[in-house]
Amino acid sequence: MPPITGAQLVLDQILDDGALGAVRRSFAKITVSRMMPSAWVRLERDEALAQAGDLDASYASGAAVGILHGVPVGLKDMFDCRGRVAGWGSTIRRHETPASRDATIVSRLECAGAVIIGALHMAEFAMSPTGRNDQLGHGSNPFDPQRVSGGSSSGAGMAVAAREVPLAIGSDTGGSVRLPAALCGVTGLKPTQFRVSVAGAMPLSPSLDCIGPLALSADLCGRALVAMVGADPFDPSCVDLPLYAGGWLGRKASDFTVVVPRLAVGDMLSNEMFESLARLRGLLSEAGMRFLEIELPDLGLYGDLASVLLAVESAAVHRRNLLNQPEVFGRQVRRRLFRGMLINGLDYHESHRLRSRLLRRFLRETLAGADALLLPTTPAGAPLIKDTIGDDHIKLEKDFSRLSYWTRGINYLGLPALSLPVGIDSNGLPLGAQFVGWPFDEERLLAIGHIVQSLSEWHLYAPLPKN
Prior knowledge:
The protein is an alpha/beta fold. It is built from 15 helices and 13 strands. It has helices at 6-17, 19-32, 45-60, 104-111, 154-161, 178-184, 218-228, 271-286, 299-317, 319-324, 331-340, 345-365, 393-403, 405-413, 442-455; strands spanning 40-43, 72-76, 115-120, 140-141, 144-148, 167-171, 187-190, 211-215, 257-261, 290-294, 372-376, 417-424, 430-437. It has an eleven-stranded mixed sheet, with helices on both faces.
């Protein structure tokens, strides 16, 4: 008998109890939540309950069941929903005209049977790796409210970790899916860039933007990706490359070879993170997975080049408001955007020109002969919120850069990466590791993730935060 998967457990319970029961449980958990601020900025209670009721009636009549049938889902507040205004983590958009159509990923999730229950907290304009938001309140960690949630998909990490929803959708421009997944102890998938349509999503840096799921298991992340991928006439950059549900199941650890860089404890890697990676490697080696040691690729260079692209393109996106009403931006965001306006055009051009060359070198020298690269997702567990705010902006920016050191360069290369919970530090905070894969080969990453979650004490789900 094949092993029961994380998504299967969620879907089996929904089929047993009904989509309406699943959605009601989500709203009940949100009602009693102690997270401040809430992971949610808007709830669609009436619409979600009506949709869940329709799904139950359809299932009772024998209709086909979608791969996300009845799964309650939260959306980072940056996706268009017809008749609503996406806030983008700011108060500036409150008087915008409501969207006339759904973002492509919203309509695709609903076609797969998912029930969208509301919009989630996010960093202001998706511009903080910690979940910082000077207008709406900083995202807080369900394991310790004094700690950051990670960002910019802060509410997504918070809501999934607190079991308010089993699945949430965020975006990843420099690590914004993987960082909150790692710091909140859930699974997060950054797909290959251009595999998921960005039509109807807030732009930040079109050269780097990527939409991805956070969920209770790799399997559920995979099902969400299946629902979202495919060509889209509203986004010409989106590739026509479908993915088939369950293609990542049934694989053995011995089917895979993973490269690991020679790492040392230091500023970018805590001792506890180092030990968690070693334990993970030992667990998978015992199961038959092969590991090859390599020199650490130049993630610092890739990250610096990504930062140039992000700075220039985000400044261009917000140029009008930045020049006409700069006071509407939080201080940190305003500083970052103005800095983007000062970058030399030649540097921006060079960052683009080097991208394909460095990607080819990475594939040839780092991933050659292997299925994936194993890296930390963050240097350590979640920092204290009080240590991520203040007036010393030079220090804060160095700290932000450190937090996203392991993720930012992967966006520059455009590669897929899957972050998994792999341990708990001495403060009781989750630690996450990521597997980085070949372009458009999310299936192998999901297979490795499913194997990890089938073997480890983090079986299928991360541990529950303390109430």
